[in-house]
Amino acid sequence: MEKPLQLVYNNEGKLQINTEALKVLQSIEVPMVVVSVVGAARTGKSYLMNCLAGDKSGFSVDSTVQAHTKGIWMWCRSLPQRPNEVLLLLDTEGLGDPEKGDTANDHSIYLLAILLSSILIYNGKNKIDQQSLQDLHFVTKLSKRIQMKAQPDGSDSWDLIRFFPEFVWVIRDLTLDMKIDGKEATPNEYLEYSLKLRDSESSEQDKKYNELRRCIRNHFPSRCCFAFPIPTHGKKLKQLQELEDKNLDKDFVKERQNLINYIHTHKKVKRVLGGQLVTGRRFVALTKAYMGMMADGVLPCVESSFAKILEVENQAAVDEALKFYDDEMKKFSEYNCLTMSALTEYYNMKSREAFNIFHKRSMSNSGKHIEQLEDKMSSTYMSLMVKIKEKSEEQCKAHLAKEMSSIKENLASGRYRRPGGFPELMKDLDKAITAYKEKTKNEIEGSAVLTHFLKKEKPRLDEIQKIDSRLMKEKKRISALEEEISRLKQEMEKMEQNRKAAEEQRNMEIVEQIRKRFEEGKQCSVEELKNAMEHMRSEMKKYKVEGRMEDMERALQRYKYLKMKYEEAGEWSFMKFIREHSPGISAALFTVVTVVAKLALFKSVN
Fold first, then answer.
1. What is the pTM of this model?
2. In terms of CB atoms within 10 Å, which of 75, 114, 121, 183 comes out highest?
3. In what order do the strands lie in the sheet with 86-92?
């Protein structure tokens, strides 16, 4: 994207999505690091985002008292250090804009920032004090308006820790000396010092003081801080966007680069449930899902939004795979020589390629969509098979009529109804059948048409046999014809067996792709929970050092809950996954899945 686009705007009190922005996002097919910035109005959030974008002329910056950014603006930028990912910057409308007069707008904007981002930057001024913590508390309180599951079971707030964005506090225009107890401190140490709880909660003021910090610590266990000094002085501040680095405070330039390096190299890619990476298309589905829930007046639900993404992505994967398959099969249907063996070979090849396309784009829990894809491809295959049979039957009948024309004339004239007529008939018949078989050797209906003809003519042949004195000798010829018909039937059966074997092989490949996707998702979930446990263990240690035993106990309970989830995720087996999703998988494919799962289990045990 050369320039930012407005993603969300306010239309007569209601938030709307800009369709042009969605079109741009739809084209992004790689994972995204989504960075949102929040904070008070007119504090330089847009300037900060331009620094992360590496372009001064991106997000609009204004030095007047009037807030400039409205709604949410987006800008997609490349990450030179990570060519297979992109950086999506979300610049949000400032808190407390007097022109709005509507806190509901703030709620919705910042709720979206939390739900959509993988890294949340809070842009504060001057220092970390009670007021800035109060402003941030506004953001954390929004968590009460988010549901983890469609049917909450009481563990929502604990589970949300896993999906909350990483938190970065940026202090702008810091004038204080960064010292704690007379010692030099880092910005991270300053942040942790500011979030320490008071020993006593005897007064209401102390309770509010501690509750505010406790809420921030519980919701953002993964956090860091960057402290920017005043970049320059006097009227130059108004031209900050245009100033070269040589005209800025060197410590400001250094800290700005530290932040840029942190964001550009950080591994916090946006994910949804099951560890699924968020691409542009999935981000669009996620945004629509959350906006739809908010418009309907229901609590945004992580699980429900994932289900909608799942349906949209998997259906799109089916459509993409089917388009490829239908186009390829259409090419085949235009060939002059359509044979069953060629169709079967072509079908197996193209259906395998179609499934590869599906699995490349699809997400987990795609059983019903695999079934849908199989059914539609099979339907196309059967339609072509019927077409081939009809065309083959028509051509075979024409060949047979041509080769049998003289025999039919002789039968009608009674030529063969005489002594020695039957051997002559059989000789002519052998010659005609040989010629017919040569012309129809690649025709699927060749043997069926010939068999039908022989059965139809059998009464007349029997009559001629009775007339001819050498009936017994000629029975051998009829037997030979029957053997030939039997051989052709066996060839057809073998061809069908080969088709089924190829289909089973394809099913095995599909299962392996499902198993691989399952293992990847399991690994992501385990890693996700492990990180959440580490963050919570860190909070426990901090509470212990602060002497906050009750808070440490509460953190311990959260840690135990996350550990239980971690252990459950580690024990989650492919077999169990298949049993729970088997309603969306065909019986044949489910049988193959079960066999593969048991083999994988046997190998792991041995």
1. 0.70
2. 121
3. 14-17, 5-11, 72-78, 86-92, 32-39, 119-125, 166-174, 223-229
